[in-house]
Design goal:
four-stranded parallel beta sheet, about 280 residues, alpha/beta, about 40% helix
Length: about 280
């Protein structure tokens, strides 16, 4: 059986940047914590804690004795940022620049009187951070069906997307808005790495008869890759590490494709690749 890696996969710029920042800060500040998980990959979070002592804290009111707080790649709400600034801590912002972009757009457009529509998952921390920059409550939709159920769409709309969503689904939402309201300002805030990883996964899944997507099961971008793979290869599986792999998946398979989410470290991808090769040789 051939084992093929997607042309683009794994760590994106924002994740690499955040990990580099965190490792550097933690070396000089042994009591460093991140406000929420730095990225959506439990194995990498565990590595940062074991090797650098970086802890995760969700509650901004319970920072303990830490004097060094790192803001996660997904960002935090504007309100939490203001609260954090009142604390006696050193703040390091590791928010991905592709996330700060929609934050700024939403703040600017809402001040100009536009109603905000966000294509994304309401409970995702990135979406919550972007929502907080709107003057009035924005509309959050996870798909076009939710949009179609809105009784009265505002006349002036500014639309952005969660950075990890699929571009074709965003396009369908934009087309519907153009046809059903007076003014639409469209901001494509899907990051380049997301688009490239999705295209590479789509291409590989059309050749493979089994696809393995590696990444955190709470990771939005990893789940999007899994959904794309499933559309073209029915035998697609999402695994966090090599221990999730089952021998029975590979029976009578000829080509195994591997892709990985933007928050999946290379050492995890390599372990999965080696495990697959060992059980199929």
């Amino acid at each position: 059986m051939k084992v093929l890696l997607a042309e683009k996969y794994g760590f994106c710029f924002g994740v690499k940047r955040a990990i580099k920042i965190t490792e550097k800060i933690a070396k000089s500040n042994p009591n460093t914590l991140t406000l929420g998980p730095l990225i959506h990959n439990p194995l990498e979070i565990e590595r940062l804690q074991n090797q650098f002592g970086v802890k995760v804290q969700e509650d901004i009111e319970n920072l303990g004795e830490s004097k060094s707080v790192i803001i996660r790649t997904h960002g935090i709400t504007k309100q939490n940022l203001e609260m954090l600034k009142l604390k006696d801590v050193e703040i390091t912002d590791a928010t991905c620049p592709f996330v700060t972009k929609p934050q700024k757009i939403v703040e600017k457009m809402s001040k100009e009187g536009y109603s905000i529509i966000i294509f994304g998952d309401f409970n995702h921390p990135e979406v919550k951070s972007v929502m907080s920059y709107s003057i009035k409550p924005p509309i959050v939709i996870s798909d076009i069906d939710m949009l179609k159920k809105i009784d009265k769409i505002p006349k002036k709309i500014a639309v952005v997307s969660q950075t990890t969503k699929q571009i074709d689904k965003f396009s369908h939402i934009v087309q519907y808005l153009i046809a059903n309201t007076l003014e639409v300002r469209v901001f494509n805030t899907i990051c380049n790495a997301t688009f490239e990883n999705q295209e590479a996964t789509r291409n590989l899944s059309q050749k493979a008869d089994i696809m393995i997507i590696v990444g955190g099961k709470t990771s939005s971008n990893t789940k999007q890759l899994f959904y794309i793979a499933q559309n073209h290869c029915k035998d697609s599986y999402l695994v966090e590490n090599e221990n999730d792999i089952q021998l029975s998946w590979f029976k009578n398979k000829q080509i195994c494709g591997i892709s990985a989410g933007a928050s999946t470290p290379n050492w995890v991808i390599k372990s999965v690749e080696e495990k697959i090769k060992s059980i199929t040789n």
